[in-house]
DNA sequence: CGTGTTTGACCCGCGC
DNA sequence: GCGCGGGTCAAACACG
């Protein structure tokens, strides 16, 4: 059975099948008097046939996918070039990395990008004061940080950097993107109106409003939600009205990363953990962090999208804002001249609030899953004051977020093939222990033994790559992932509705729900996650263990 | 010894 | 102006 499934591996699969068939045939010649084996052979052949058919079907899907992709890419490029103007569109620039690299050196306006409303100058000033007054041994790093800040200028909040952005993929054809590349992309994309930088900056000063925040409510019995990013705790407070202390974390991937998160238990229901994200990652994210980051950025983009029309920070700057979702290729209104007042995704129950000093959105992942699925497709509930994002959830317990995002499927699938066999932490297809959620690097560091064992076992195999490919592609999880990818990309052709696809792309966290919900009938159901063993090691969020005391 | 957490002090914005 | 509360800093401490 296992061997049969392995034959599904693309490339070389049929060769292997023939070899196996012939060997089986030889056995049959020797053991003709064994009807049992004949039955086994028949069933194996039948199964093989099915698998082959499925393999063929998947290939067809993939071919179609690639054709569609190329077609769309061509169309998109045409549109972009038609619109070519002195102020090049951000998409064009994103697609023309070479060009924008040159611009980066030529145009000082990249130093200022749009803000989500929070005036950065005062903050920068404050930071400067603080940093310069810091201890001598930190002087060097402080100066560097200040310089970086000055170089980078203002940034959009609540988006994240993806080093496998579709635009990049489409340009490079490869997922590998240097941090510089990403940084450049972000600078480019974040400075749509860079030529008007001073004015925009001024506008930002006049509109000191409000850095968007995204809160995620998750039923979680661990101290913090494992979102794949690295956090360092820098403070804790008892907030008014909640006996549970609020913990403050900052992103520790890079010292200069401005991203903060607050973690607090809900006073009404202690099992609910409320995590609030704020700020912009100025570095490439660990793979495992992409799902949450893109989800929060999409949610933030919704806030901003709403703000541009509903009056939240209704300055000129906000209307011209490049939403994070757009940055990540999440925006489906690419050809829509930003005239839509509605976010490019549908939120069944999101809570959007601008009453506080920060516009915020709450993604409620705590309630039962049935409601969402029964109400599918979810509808964006246009409520004057609040909506609730109710994502149902299997996100209880360890709260690992199932990751599968439709952007850059090729890369994701490649990652899956890499990670599953060797360490498997980067993608989750359902509930899984948090230790399986660590990004590649930290996992490699903290699980050296297992990784070494995995590598050893790989090397022991004469055809390690081939066998690994077989094993992975034979894995029902992979099939499901592939199915989800296919359905998400050619959603209009299958059960998945366009709305679902939108939602899925905007909120990768949802993807597993959607994929399980919308799998084509000929796809296999999602099986339990792979039992990837991993020792409980130092957490990606090192605070976790200690926080349990709280 | 390096890294991360704890925790009291401090800063700052906001409402009265 | 004052007090309150949220947010941050940084020295002390803990841990591997």
TrEMBL record:
Residues 220-286 form the WRKY domain. This is WRKY family protein 22. Its main location: nucleus. Residues 113-122 have a biased composition (Low complexity). It comes from Heracleum moellendorffii. It is found in: Nucleus. The keyword Nucleotide-binding does not apply. It comes from the Eukaryota.
């Amino acid at each position: 059975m296992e061997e049969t499934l392995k034959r599904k591996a693309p490339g070389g699969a049929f060769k292997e099948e023939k070899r196996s068939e012939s060997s089986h045939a030889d056995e049959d010649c020797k053991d003709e008097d064994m009807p049992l084996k004949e039955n086994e052979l028949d069933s194996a052949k039948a199964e093989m046939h099915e698998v082959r058919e499925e393999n063929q079907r998947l290939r067809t899907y993939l071919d179609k996918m690639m054709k569609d992709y190329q077609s769309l890419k061509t169309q998109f490029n045409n549109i972009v070039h038609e619109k070519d103007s002195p102020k090049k569109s951000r998409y064009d620039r994103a697609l023309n990395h070479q060009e924008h690299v040159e611009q980066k050196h030529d145009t000082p306006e990249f130093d200022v990008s749009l803000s989500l409303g929070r005036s950065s100058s005062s903050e920068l000033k404050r930071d400067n004061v603080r940093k310069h007054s810091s201890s001598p041994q930190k002087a060097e790093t402080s100066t560097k940080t200040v310089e970086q800040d000055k170089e980078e200028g203002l940034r959009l909040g609540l988006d994240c950097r993806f080093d496998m952005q579709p635009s990049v993929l489409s340009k490079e054809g490869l997922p590998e993107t240097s941090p510089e590349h990403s940084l450049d992309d972000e600078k480019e994309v974040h400075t749509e109106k860079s030529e008007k930088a001073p004015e925009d900056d001024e506008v930002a000063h006049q509109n000191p409003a409000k850095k968007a925040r995204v809160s995620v409510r998750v039923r979680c019995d661990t101290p913090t939600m494992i979102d794949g990013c690295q956090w360092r705790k820098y403070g804790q407070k008892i907030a008014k009205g909640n006996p549970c202390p609020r913990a403050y974390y900052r992103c520790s991937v890079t010292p200069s990363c401005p991203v903060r998160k607050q973690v607090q238990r809900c006073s009404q229901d202690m099992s609910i953990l409320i995590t609030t994200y704020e700020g912009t990652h100025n570095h490439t994210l660990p793979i495992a962090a992409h799902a949450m980051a893109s989800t929060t950025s999409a949610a933030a983009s919704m806030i901003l999208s709403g703000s541009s029309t509903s009056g939240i920070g209704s300055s000129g700057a906000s209307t011209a804002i490049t939403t994070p979702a757009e940055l990540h290729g999440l925006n489906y209104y690419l050809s829509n001249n930003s005239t839509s007042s509605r976010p490019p995704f549908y939120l069944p129950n999101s809570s959007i609030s601008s009453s506080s000093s920060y516009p915020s959105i709450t993604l409620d992942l705590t309630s039962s899953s049935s409601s969402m699925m029964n109400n599918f497709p979810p509808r964006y509930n246009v409520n004057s004051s609040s909506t609730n994002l109710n994502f149902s959830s299997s996100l209880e317990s360890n709260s690992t977020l199932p990751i599968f995002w439709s952007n850059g499927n090729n890369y994701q699938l490649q990652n899956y093939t890499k990670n599953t066999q060797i360490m498997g932490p980067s993608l989750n297809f359902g509930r899984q222990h948090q230790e399986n959620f660590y990004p590649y690097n930290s996992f490699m560091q903290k699980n050296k033994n297992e990784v070494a064992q995995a590598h050893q076992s790989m090397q022991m195999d004469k055809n390690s790559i081939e066998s690994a490919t077989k094993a992975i592609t034979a894995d029902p999880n992979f099939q499901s992932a592939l199915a989800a990818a296919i359905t998400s990309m050619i959603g209009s052709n299958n059960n998945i509705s366009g709305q679902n696809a939108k939602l899925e792309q905007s909120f990768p966290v949802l993807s597993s729900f959607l994929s399980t919900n919308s799998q084509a009938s000929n796809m296999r159901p999602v099986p339990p996650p792979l039992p990837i063993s991993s020792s409980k090691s130092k957490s990606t969020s090192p605070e976790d263990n200690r926080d349990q005391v709280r």
